[in-house]
Write a structure and sequence with these properties.
Number of helices: 3
Number of domains: 2
Strand order of the largest sheet: 2-1-5-6
Helix content: 10-25%
Order of helices and strands: EEEEEEEEEEHHH
Distance between the termini: 58 Å
Shape: elongated
């Protein structure tokens, strides 16, 4: 199993047990870190892509050490002017080890609340017939449903001619 997680503005492909260097996270070592910006998960071929993040997914890691990365040399020169400057920079980094990747359940409380709202809205949608259909779907629904079950399906101010024609033919027949 692996995941693509966003840490410090960079995206990393991680799996359990990986050790990687990321932008500095904290001063304390042996600290548990949780990253909830999981963009993609792959669980033995079952790929879940987030929009923009996967709901309820989280990556847990341990901060092993704070180090400095390799030196980057910045050299500036203007020819024939006697101007040259040599400067270096070492970016502070954190070494982390990925402990676990969870896809659901132990995610944030916001994800759990959204899931509860989604469950109640799904129950409401099951009892209601959607009027947001294409004309062909509406015609087939009207033709295949009893007249008593269609009350209130087509509003009186409906402007789609094909749906009205199907409704009128159903009432006449």
């Amino acid at each position: 199993m692996y995941a693509v997680v966003k840490i410090g503005g960079h995206q990393y492909r991680v799996s359990e047990g990986d050790v990687l260097f990321v932008d500095k996270q904290s001063d304390e070592t042996d600290q548990k870190l949780t990253f909830e910006e999981v963009l993609l998960t792959n669980d033995d071929g079952k790929v879940t892509v987030g929009q923009p993040v996967v709901e309820g997914a989280a990556v847990e890691a341990t901060l092993l050490d704070n180090v400095k990365s390799d030196k980057v040399i910045v050299f500036k020169k203007k020819r024939r002017k006697g101007y040259q400057v040599k400067r270096g920079h070492r970016q502070p980094m954190s070494q982390i080890e990925i402990n676990s990747i969870s896809t659901s359940g132990s995610g944030s409380k916001k994800a759990a609340k959204k899931k509860e709202k989604k469950d109640t809205s799904d129950a409401e949608q099951a009892t209601q017939v959607s009027t947001d259909m294409t004309a062909k779907e509406a015609i087939s629904h009207i033709r295949n449903t009893d007249l008593e079950d269609l009350k209130g399906f087509v509003p009186e101010d409906e402007e789609r001619v094909t749906v009205l024609d199907a409704w009128n033919s159903k009432q006449e027949g």
